[in-house]
Amino acid sequence: MTGTTAQPTPSVLAARAAPAVADHRVPITDLRRAAWTCALGSAMEYYDFALYSLASALVLGPLFFPHHGATVGLIASFGTYFVGFAVRPFGGLLFGALGDRYGRKFVLLFTVTLMGVASSCIGLIPTYATIGMWAPVLLVLLRIMQGLGAGAEQAGASVMMTEFAPRGQRGFYAAIPLLGIQTGSFVAACVYYFAIAAHPDIVQGWGWRVPFLLSIVILVIAVYMRMHLKESPAFTEMESHHALEKLTLRQFFRNSGRTIFFGMGLRMAENGGASIYQALSVSYLVTAVGVDGRTGTAVLMSATIVGGLGIMLGGTLGDRFGRVRVYRAAAIIQGLSAFPVWYILGQGNFIACVIAMSIGWGIGNNGMYGAQAALLPEMFGMGHRYGGVAATREISAVFAGGIAPLVGSLIISKVAQHHAGLPHPGHPAWVWLGAYVFVLSAITVAATFFIPDPINRDLQDHHDIL
């Protein structure tokens, strides 16, 4: 890690000096509609994300991998979880390129439909007991559909809102769709909480299907709202000047490879941390610590509320103090709290677990996410912004968010084997889980020193900041 922050490029310095009135002006009704429409799509994506995380921890192993034992079944279910992440870069590159060529609205409408249909169908597929090996095969295919759609959804929402928002308030408005993430996660946790309450042995009945089938409701609302969404002003202006870029994949990575690389560094702590906290915290509490499923889910529900505050703090403070500086501070909070958070989770006290998760994940991790909302779009040039943000988000998601729960479940399994005589043999895994989050945070802190802050740059500029 170097001790000096990267120096701003001339275009970034010019953007900082430019007055706010140089920006386009969007009617406030259009701005609000864009914000809440993008937020609903984010809710759809992260309802699916959190739902599958909880299902992997609580029900998918016995239902789709019943002959592998509890531990191997858990790893196998998180393996299908990883499949969804593995295909996200392909979805990001494909739909990102389409978004830069045909518009943000077109792609956002398609991706939310793809994700919603896939999630609803998971609630309809037969289990292993009914159709044997075809059950996990169908599960994997639907996860691939989810992953392809999710690969461009959040990138498109961030780009759309950054291009809609007035200069000086991009961080605030770009963070609003991310509240959809917390909403989706919270609703998923609530639905599973009440499903478990209604059917304590949720694996044996049909109750596990209900949360997935409820995706249909969110899907219908999201599609309706996105059909009435206007195209981003920045894209409309670029299209009117016939300035659309048509880059080959090789040209794209040659031009933006450096920006994508350091953007991936930013994502390691945020995406990896979010994934391990959301996907693994409940699993750890239930399987390793011995907490019941309802209590473990309630911990995640409670911390999710604080996460909404963390997102808006990250976006708003980024407008005032600089996005990179705020991002770095949030990464440090997550890193320093990593060991205490996992130690406290290992004790199983509900109130203490909620407070710990609220600090490490709610403020630290979501603070990064809020600052990232406008930071990544401002890092890329106009003609390939959607593709650049999607590539950065989704390639890093494979190495950070997709692998994290798999690594975490393996850690719990190995520690459990080593402490086989204890009542809850996976309990001592908190040291390794904390170390994993700490390392991811350290990578991101290092990356922030190589990135000039692009705050308020001209969004019509076709050059990246690196």
Gyration radius (Cα, Å) is 21 Å
Query: How much of the polypeptide forms β-strand, as a percent range?
Result: under 5%
- Classify the fold: give the CATH topology: Growth Hormone, Chain: A
Low-confidence stretches: 14-22
Pfam families: Sugar_tr
Protein name: MFS transporter
Main location: membrane
Organism: Gluconacetobacter tumulisoli
Give a description of the structure.
The protein has helices spanning 10-17, 28-58, 60-64, 69-86, 88-102, 104-122, 128-131, 134-164, 170-198, 209-213, 215-227, 233-240, 249-289, 293-321, 323-347, 350-379, 385-418, 430-448. By secondary structure, it is mainly α. The protein has one domain: Growth Hormone, Chain: A, CATH 1.20.1250. α2 runs antiparallel to α11. The two termini are 18 Å apart. The model is unreliable at 14-22 (pLDDT under 50). One of its GO terms (molecular function) is transmembrane transporter activity. InterPro entries: MFS_dom, MFS_sugar_transport-like, MFS_trans_sf. Keywords: Cell membrane, Membrane, Transmembrane, Transmembrane helix, Transport. It comes from Gluconacetobacter tumulisoli.
